[in-house]
Amino acid sequence: MSEFEVPVLVTGSQGRRRRIGIMGGTFDPIHHGHLVAASEVLSVFNLDEVIFVPTGNQPYKQDRDVTLAEHRYLMAVATASNPRFSVSRVDIEREGTTYTIDTLRDLRRVYPDADFFFITGADVLPQILGWKNSDALWSMAHFVGVTRPGHQLDTAGLPPEGITLMEIPAMAISSTDCRNRVRSGIQPWYLVPDGVVQYIAKYRLYRADGNVGSDRMVVSDDVSARAVGSSGHGRDSHADLTGQRKG
Ligand code: NAP
After folding, report:
1. pLDDT tens digits, one per residue of 123-181
2. Which residue's alpha carbon is nearest to atom 10 within ligand 1?
3. CA of residue 120 to ligand 1 center, whole Å
4. What string of H, E and C letters represents the secondary structure of the chain?
5. Ligand 1 mutation pick, 22, 58, 128, max ligand atoms within 8 A of CB
6. Which atom of ligand 1 lies at the shortest distance from residue 175's CA?
7. Arithmetic mean of pLDDT, 30-36
8. CA of 125 to the centre of ligand 1 (A)
9. 38: Cβ below 6 Å to ligand 1?
10. CA dist 195 to 169, 199, 210, 237, Å?
11. Whole-model pTM?
12. CB of 121 sitting under 6 A from ligand 1
């Protein structure tokens, strides 16, 4: 076991600070690997909740086609049957490029007294040293890198006390594979929640004909009402999305 791996149950106590997982990702689309990862981190770190935060404009993806943020957000909402999971709009509503430092600052305003655990793909973590305000990140959250089975990670330069790596077998599922299946005409049943299969079909996402979702989409209130729950951040009316943009 490396110094980055801490597969021990962190026990909590009554009256302790709230422990919140922040699951940052593109989620294009969200899949069962993400959900299992969030659930595993929640139990290993004894978290109170996990907030999924779909990215807005990710700095390393500005020249790539990413599905509309609103679609990615709504697919994430469609999975929020776990009462400890919610989905936030903080990144998709902030103007400009999505930086994790801004995600953490925005959520800190909502949860001034919580301990944060930023959960993301482990292969993203080696890039952290080049992220905006990277020095400040370590004091704002503990970072949990979720790895796929057999994945080797270069952790050179990363502070062991700031990061934990967790191998999640279910992360053998990948968003790229889900998109490729749909492009080949195969529905990703059982790789993503049923509601996400239906959402992909309804909005014709990831299709070989290049249609990555309608330019104009109206989101019904019953869907938006299920977002986020009571935490207050990110709940919004997001009815009329016009124009296609990078996610
Ligand atoms: P990505 O390049 O789409 O994903 C990299 C790898 O990590 C993929 O294998 C992906 O698998 C996996 N992954 C992504 N999010 C995950 C999650 N929450 N749990 C488990 N696996 C995950 O990475 P990204 O989604 O663009 O970025 C991840 C997070 O890092 C976002 O919150 C983003 O804002 C942040 N970030 C910040 C900066 C910055 O502040 N400068 C720069 C880059 C990224 P799947 O494709 O199957 O999801």
Report:
1. 888 899 899 999 999 999 999 999 988 877 778 888 888 999 999 999 999 999 999 99
2. 121
3. 6
4. CCCCCCCCCCCCCCCCCCEEEEEEECCCCCCHHHHHHHHHHHHHCCCCEEEEEECCECHHHCCCCCCCHHHHHHHHHCCCCCCCEEECCHHHHCCCECCHHHHHHHHHHHCCCCEEEEEEEHHHHHHHHHCCCHHHHHHHCEEEEEECCCCCCCCCCCCHHHEEEEECHHHHCCHHHHHHHHHCCCCCECCECHHHHHHHHHCCCCCCCCCCCCCEEECCHHHHCCCCHHHCCCCCCCCEEECCCCC
5. 58
6. 47
7. 97
8. 9
9. no
10. 23, 6, 22, 21
11. 0.85
12. yes
- Whole-number Å distance, alpha carbon 244 to ligand 1 midpoint, is 22
Name the one residue in this structure whose structure tokens are 């299920």: 226
Is the CB of 224 within 6 Å of ligand 1? no
